[in-house]
Amino acid sequence: MLPRAFLACLAALCLLVPSAWAQISLSAASSSVLVYADAAANGAVQLRFQIPKTLSYFALGTGSKMSGSDIVVVWQNTDGSVTVSHRQASGHSLPSPVNQQAISIVANQASKVAVPSNVYVATVIVPSSWASSSSFIWAYVTGSLPTSNDPNAATFVQHARNTRGIIQGSLLTSANSFKSGSPSTPPPPKSSNGAPSPPGSNNGNNGNNGSSGNTDTDDITGGDSLPDFTVAHGYLMTFAWLVSTPIGIFIAQFFKERWHNWWFRLHQFFMFIGCGVLALVGFWLIFYQKQVAGDYHFSYADTGLHGILGLILTVLMLIQIVLGVVIDRLYNKDRTSVPFHDKLHWYIGRLVTLLAIVNIILGCILYVAPTWIYVVIGVWLALVVAVFVLLKVQQTRTRRAKPGDAEQHSLSRPKQNKPLQGRY
């Protein structure tokens, strides 16, 4: 009698359990994004997104990396309407809008489980190519909404490393179908690093069934355990090229006669340690990070001109260091003209410095740096140019007052109290 009553109660409870469960439940901030998928007409795929309103946007794309990914970006506008933008990624820059007619927003199907008030729903038909993809990338951002309701004109803030990930496996599985899913009890949603959320954590279920799906822990990855070296890379490169390099150049250009023994030592310090070592550390950090993430840092499709130009600058910088050492060893105090290798060192240095400034700006654009970064760089460069002009004017006046000093300045070192190796 008791077993029968128990089974009857269990059957009654099963009738109350919804028939659709999301295979994909992604922890996003303090809530979860749910993604369902069903086959649509003509081989297309119908995606149903349940997205917390606290997110600026949620993006899902084909493949395992940005380059070449076919992406849909979903966000809710201030008037409550939903925009879905069809994008094509070419690397770690803002994905470009592509044929918006290839996707379509359709009416949302009624859910057997009440959708929480802090969540909005969007159902989108995507191209048939999505059905054959075996991996997908996802990302989200909290905060300010995209700049426009227009799917072609809108721009977005770039996601962080811990707000992105990869989904392995096909979307079109019975467990992930919104129309005919399994009524089995779902596991807790995944956290951003692919592990189940700890017991008692705020995983976005809000007490409602159906907030997470049937999937193994390995199905969702992302949120690498390594720290994000992008910011460290940016600061190191900025200090190396915008602070240390100008100081090293100014010392060699304007302070030989004044500082005697010390100018060359300081020039070596700022150019070798301040620029060379810091730039190499910054280069290694971003290269290592990209390799771990499975990205190719020197691909134009992946990082645009920034990655390629960064490699060229690093090679030229190493050539400059070697050339400086060679020039120092070949210095002849009795020379009557400026050797070719000296002039080569000068002009490579100027070229590398200008290219480095350009590449820093390209890096800021690539990683969508905030406005204040551009302001700080602009003010600093203006200050550097102003100081250079003032020192150059002062140097010109001094040399005019002492005829013959200008030529002697490039041919020999100033008088020193102690023998010192140096290229000037």
Describe the 3D structure.
The chain has 424 residues and is α+β, with helices and mostly antiparallel strands. It has 2 domains: 20-222, Immunoglobulin-like (Sandwich); 230-411, Up-down Bundle (Four Helix Bundle (Hemerythrin (Met), subunit A)). It has helices spanning 2-16, 129-132, 230-254, 256-259, 261-292, 300-330, 340-366, 371-401, 405-411; strands at residues 24-28, 31-39, 45-52, 55-62, 70-76, 82-88, 96-97, 104-106, 119-126, 135-142, 164-168, 220-222. The strands form 2 sheets. It has a 7-stranded antiparallel β-sheet, with no helix packed on it. Helix 3 runs antiparallel to helix 5, helix 5 (261-292) packs antiparallel against helix 6 (300-330) and helix 6 (300-330) packs antiparallel against helix 7. The longest helix has 32 residues, at 261-292. It starts with a helix and ends in a 13-residue tail after the last helix. The model is unreliable at 9-22, 181-226 and 411-424 (pLDDT under 50).
Give the arrangement of secondary structure elements:
Layout (H helix, E strand, L loop, with lengths): L1 H15 L7 E5 L2 E9 L5 E8 L2 E8 L7 E7 L5 E7 L7 E2 L6 E3 L12 E8 L2 H4 L2 E8 L21 E5 L51 E3 L7 H25 L1 H4 L1 H32 L7 H31 L9 H27 L4 H31 L3 H7 L13
Antiparallel strand pairs: 1-2, 2-3, 3-9, 4-5, 4-10, 5-6, 6-7, 8-9, 10-11, 11-12
Helix pairs in contact: 3-5, 3-7, 3-8, 5-6, 6-7
